[in-house]
Structure formats: C-alpha cells, structure tokens
Design goal:
Strand content: 5-15%
Oligomer: single chain
Shape: globular
Distance between the termini: 44 Å
CATH topology of one domain: Rossmann fold
Strand order of the largest sheet: 2-1-3-4
Structural class: alpha/beta
Radius of gyration: 17 Å
CATH superfamily of one domain: NadA-like
Largest sheet: 4 strands, parallel
Length: about 160
C-alpha cells in the first residue's frame, strides 16, 4: 500500500517548464521557492527557503520584481516589507497543469489570528507523541534545515 508521502497540494502544482517561460519574460526577477516544490522548480530558484527566508530576501534585495513559488498568502507580508515591489505567482497552469489550488492552500487559510487566540485561551488540539517517535521526528526536521542552509539566500548584491 502506498501511503501519502506528505506532498503539499500547492507546491506540487508549480510547473518548471512554465516557470522557464515566465523567467524569460522577467529575466531580472529573482525566483523565490519553498523547498517543498518540485525539483525542476527548485533548480531554477535564486532563493530556496522558509517563509521568513523568502520575506527576508524580498526586503534585502534591490530587485523590484520577484517570481514566488509558494502559497500566494505570503504576498501580503511581502508587500508590507517591500512596498512598491512586484510579486508574480510562479505558474501552476500550463500544459501539465491540474491547478487544484492555484497557489492557495485551503488548510493554511484556516489558520487565523482569532483561532490562534481561541486556542491560546482555551487550549485543545494538543498532539501527544510517543517519546521514541518524537526523537525520530527530529531527523527529518534536521534534514530540512540542512537543505535550506545549503541553498543561498539572496542578499542585496545577489538578486
């Protein structure tokens, strides 16, 4: 039986061929990518990193246009830290597209400040893990952090 491998609905939809076409239209736009994206998309990235790393890259870069391969909900924060800059969604459409999400994660959208406040006030939704499982869970987190650390983060002169 093949079990779910933890793929993200949004990130799996970014298309490398269509991204190449968009990069030709915007040759000076750095490509910002979350590491959950397909390998062909990651290979074209100027920055691969967490949400905070992508936002930092936008705020520190002298570029005025960016191609972003992650949930489009990040655009609000990017516009706050870099007003006047342009953010383009990496393509989820094209010849190979299914576009089930179109760069919008319905599960991430369920997280709101009101729900967070309610959780902090009332508790709940606690997940209890077996201690052995919790110790083993550190390994993939460490691998993810090492992967991100191995990719360059754009600085003012890089992007």
């Amino acid at each position: 039986m093949l079990m779910w491998q933890g793929a993200c609905l949004v990130h799996e939809e970014f298309k490398s061929l269509e991204l190449e076409e968009l990069r030709r239209q915007y040759p000076h736009a750095p490509v910002l990518v979350h590491p959950e994206s397909p390998a062909g998309v990651i290979a074209q990235a100027d920055v691969v990193g967490s949400t905070s790393a992508l936002i930092k890259a936008v705020s520190e870069s002298s570029a005025d246009t960016f191609i972003v391969a992650t949930d489009r909900g990040i655009f609000h924060r990017m516009r706050q830290v870099a007003p006047g800059k342009t953010f383009l969604e990496a393509p989820t459409a094209g010849n190979s597209a299914t576009c089930n999400s179109c760069a919008h994660c319905p599960w991430m959208a369920m997280n709101t400040l009101d729900r967070l406040m309610q959780l902090l006030r009332e508790g709940g939704n606690e997940i209890m893990l077996d201690l052995d499982l919790a110790r083993r869970a550190v390994e993939p987190v460490d691998r993810m952090l090492a992967f991100t650390a191995g990719h360059k983060i754009a600085s003012d002169g890089d992007a």
